[in-house]
Amino acid sequence: MQDEIFNLYKNCFSYFSQKDITVQNIIADYNNHIFTYTINKKIVGVSIINKNVIYLLCVDKKYRNMGIGSKLLYDSEEYIFSKGYDEINIGAGDNYIFPGIPMNDGMHNFFKKKGYFHAWGDCGCYDMSLDLHDFNYFEHNLNDTINEVTYRYANESDIDRVLFAVNEAEKDFVPYYTNPQLYTKNTQTPVLIAETNNEIAGAIMLDVGTNIPDEGSVGCTITVPEYRNKGIASTMVRIATKQLKKNNLKKAFLEYTYTYILNIYGRSGYKVCMEYFMAKKLLSQS
């Protein structure tokens, strides 16, 4: 069944950049509760629930507008309600395939009609991308010192200081920075840091082509509050992106970012390629 569900996901979201093994592992999570809708013994619709989060709800394009999605959503809400939860989130929980509902095909309107709202208020959630052929940055390089700030890859001896800085700047990012493999020599997922006066002023994570062929990524950019508004974040993005290009990658990708920091990446040429509806619905337990 898991393979059939994965194939349905690929059919419905062929445009989406996500590592296949990541999606397959999420589908296979034994903590999931899965509703399927079948026609002639073929799965044409699915809803995957984990706690009070719907990780995935999709219907084969051939069978849409037949009430299948509404049926799956109703069953999912009833199940989540029966487990004692008072709200439902679509997309992101302990894990996620999508941070929210992709808005490019209008799918979010289906959920809005069912009582869901954008949980982030005025703040949007986005993916961004950059064609590295168009990226030309010659001013600075890895290991340069600019205005007394050195930009280099972190190593194992830096872990504690990096985690301290990340905790100061963005606590939610700490789990992403804890993996010791990020700090080993020749890793394809290095952490680039901005260091000054023996302090970590900022950090950014890279993926040098481990996700999708010819594509790398940057993300989880942080700047310690006292070092903000000095151009450090923008410089880290540019030097990190330059490293992706030097590794002969064709595209740079940034996922799960938000309105208030779009300009940090936009100044380097990144453009929004996907917007998400961070859907939430409150359930009445009365």
Rg over CA atoms: 21 Å
Shape: elongated
Structural classification: alpha+beta
Query: Which percent bin holds the helix content?
Result: 25-40%
Summarize, please.
The chain has helices at 2-12, 20-28, 68-82, 107-113, 159-169, 174-177, 232-246, 262-266, and strands spanning 33-39, 42-50, 53-59, 87-90, 101-102, 117-118, 125-131, 145-146, 149-153, 191-196, 199-212, 215-223, 251-258, 271-277, 279-282.
Task: Describe, in plain words, how this protein is organized in 3D.
The protein is an alpha+beta fold and 286 residues long. It has eight helices and 15 strands. A hairpin with a 2-residue loop joins strand 8 and strand 9. Helix 1 (2-12) crosses helix 2 (20-28). The longest helix is centred in the first third of the chain and has 15 residues, at 68-82. The protein starts with a helix and ends with a strand.
